[in-house]
Amino acid sequence: MKGIVLNRQRDSKIEFASLPDPELKSGEALIRIKAAALNHRDEWCRQGLYPNLSDGTVLGSDGAGIVEKVSDTDDSSWVGKEVIINPAMYWGPDQRAQSKDFKILGMPRNGTFAEYLAVPVDRLHLKPEHLSWEEAAALPLAGVTAYRALIYQGQAAGGDSILISGIGGGVAQFAFQYALAIGAQVSVSSSRADKLEKAKHLGAHHGYRYDDPNWTDRAVLETGGFDVIIDGAAGDSINQLIHACRPGGRIVLYGATAGLPSKLEARKVYWNQLKIMGSTMGSDEDFIGMMSLVKEKRIHPVIDQIFSFEDALNAFEHMEAGNQFGKIVLKP
User: Fold this and answer.
1) CA 247 vs CA 139, 179, 229: distances in Å
2) Which pLDDT value is given to residue 15?
3) Are 106 and 59 in contact (CB under 8 A)?
4) Which of 62, 76, 128, 213 is packed most tightly, with the most Cβ within 10 A?
5) Domain count, the chain
6) Do residue 195 and residue 234 come from a single domain?
7) d(Cα 123, Cα 27) in Å, to the nearest integer?
8) Counting runs of H as helices and runs of E as strands, what totals does the chain give?
9) Residue 108 pLDDT
10) What is the DSSP letter of 311?
11) How far apart are CA 298 and CA 292, in angstroms?
């Protein structure tokens, strides 16, 4: 089979290579991948910024495909089914946080950027009929990360005033769609006017340029402040988010692409009874909840661009440039 592997000896740090077909272990299924999708995690692996990197590992956490065979006869009903793969493994029994054994497909275990993947049967979910292969592949990692941040940690509900920062990225895009689906009043922020316009076209009530030093004053004036803020940047902008929160509001951080804040406006946090929470990926319970929401509300993931496996380097460079609005999909 063919697949995209990490190869730090090459200038591109990735290689489209011929690989042996996966061998099934007990409890596993062989999936013929129909589509996969990029995440920042894959680009961080390419840049050497992820722990426990191993050359020759197939990258990719997101994928959807058809079950070709299973190792155990008890699982034979899965053969021929169209499935989405849950890339989170060994979350553990505690819904509040993942176990120390938690892992994600695509490093160090082989991931979805290959023609075939062996994966435990308990990671499989039936593909919603309303989704194309590309849409199904776009959903898992970013989709469940957004669901946990918004629904489990943020406790978002219909009627809430919600801000999704950094609109255009995968997690932000899903959080935006979920917030609209539950009936919230949704605003977005970005440094790009074109991304704000796209979000407004999709249903955003307000859009703010976070590179405008006065954006939070305008946001508070127009919205009264936000009940929930979903953010993946952190950095010193976290103090802007604190200012934009209503008393009793919740700020959920799922990343820190802008680094650590040099200071924290602690007085505003305690005086306004704010909650600042961390969130990452999601449990099996979160994944099931996400799938139910996507099916019930017939949510279609936003696809930015589709690349072939052979053209993977251009897909990675497109992500690195940060110009995407929605998910970047790869196809065998």
Assistant:
1) 33, 20, 13
2) 97
3) yes
4) 62
5) 2
6) yes
7) 10
8) 10, 17
9) 92
10) G
11) 10
The answer to whether residues 126 and 21 belong to one domain is yes
Identify the domain containing residue 251 by its residue range.
Answer: 145-278
Does 288 map to a domain? no
Which residues of the chain are modeled with pLDDT < 70? none
What pLDDT does 73 receive? 95
295 within some domain = no
Whether 291 is covered by a domain: the verdict is: no
Are 125 and 167 within one domain? no
Per-residue confidence (pLDDT) for residue 126, from 0 to 100: 98
CB contact at 8 A, 66 and 54:
no
Whose structure tokens read 């591109």? 12
Listed in sequence order, the DSSP H helices in the chain are 40-46, 133-138, 140-147, 170-181, 193-201, 215-223, 238-244, 266-271, 284-296, 312-321
Give me the DSSP letters along 4-67. Answer: EEE-TTSTTSEEEEE-PPP-PPTTEEEEEEEEEE--HHHHHHHTT-SSS--TT-B--SEEEEEE
